[in-house]
Amino acid sequence: MLARAVAHVSQSALGHNLQNLSRRAGVPLLLPVKADAYGHGLELVSRVAAAHPDVWGLAVATPQEAAQLAALNLGKPVVLLTPPTPEELGPLADLGVRLPVGSMQEAELLPAHARAHLKVDTGMNRLGARPAEAIGIGQHLAQRGVLEGAYTHFSSADEPDTSDSEEEFRRFQAVLAALPPVLAHASNGGGILSFGKLPGMSLARPGLASYGFAPAHLQGVVDLTPVMTMRARVNQIHTALAGESVSYNRLWTAPRDTRIAVLGMGYADGYPRNATLKASVLIGGEVRPTLGRICMDQMMVDITGLDVQVGDWAELWGTGDISVTDVARWGDTIEYEVLTGLGNRVERALVP
């Protein structure tokens, strides 16, 4: 069956970003590939990243992702960042997955053959142990011989004011000082772009930055290229006569006879429904507006005067005229949500 919508994932763009981010951080990368590699395709991205010399390992958010990734046998460590259930500890340890530990109870449940990464809560108040408690947990893990790493997560490293992140890092350093040497990692993408190399760190964890995006005030700090180009096929072409409306709720009425292309992507595929009456696409060599309400499976585009045929492709975002940032703004959301919201009806394809 022919694909209705395809996300082209650039191997060269991903490699370019990983190299530049590792240079900026001054350490190898623990690449987050959670949430289907931020929508880019878990297996596809992980195979490319595992072969990259600047990637130490791959990080995921759920036990299911960890098991799926470990089964690929890519030769790079898999680190689980959020706690599994007690029943999942043994099977994950058997697969070689590095396990997060954020409490003494979790530490005591670890199998003897596990490798643990201590999670320190320095200000996010989400997961992990507070610094004073983390020291005791880390020492316990070290005594058992299972402590491999320690990590924290900056709560606001993507903001212009870095004072909170600096304080969080000081708290993390205090924990590390009380432990034997471990693989320490703290910087997300914002941390890498804001601070560069942080003292005592072994790894860095750039998420969205790896896929080509930086906060507005940090753009240009590192040369990043968007990795994904999203295209949808023209499934039908017809004409709406002057005075006729298009799509649900009659939000748009044709002021003249209007030639319309129906594209095979809608909000069930991850395109924001809130982008209705705001979004545009690149089609037939021009940027053209979408018309009417974005539907579950389709969206309509004005192609009046263009040489467009059924089966042609429209670019919804990429590296040129329209970016994911534009789509996120039209949809009143953020790039993360647009990318990770791509559904499984969207084919992922690796391109050079």
UniProtKB/TrEMBL annotation:
Alanine racemase C-terminal domain span: 227-351
Provenance organism: Deinococcus antarcticus
Catalysed reactions, as listed in the record: L-alanine = D-alanine
InterPro entries: Ala_racemase (IPR000821), Ala_racemase/Decarboxylase_C (IPR009006), Ala_racemase_C (IPR011079), Ala_racemase_N (IPR001608), Ala_racemase_pyridoxalP-BS (IPR020622), PLP-binding_barrel (IPR029066)
Keywords: Isomerase, Pyridoxal phosphate
Entry binding sites for substrate: 126, 296
GO MF term (any one): alanine racemase activity
EC number: 5.1.1.1
This protein's record includes keyword Cytoplasm: no
Cross-referenced HAMAP family: Ala_racemase
Cofactor: pyridoxal 5'-phosphate
Record function comment: Catalyzes the interconversion of L-alanine and D-alanine. May also act on other amino acids.
Phylogenetic lineage: Bacteria, Thermotogati, Deinococcota, Deinococci, Deinococcales
Pathway: Amino-acid biosynthesis; D-alanine biosynthesis; D-alanine from L-alanine: step 1/1
Record-given protein name: Alanine racemase
PANTHER family: ALANINE RACEMASE, ALANINE RACEMASE, CATABOLIC-RELATED
Residues of the signal peptide: none
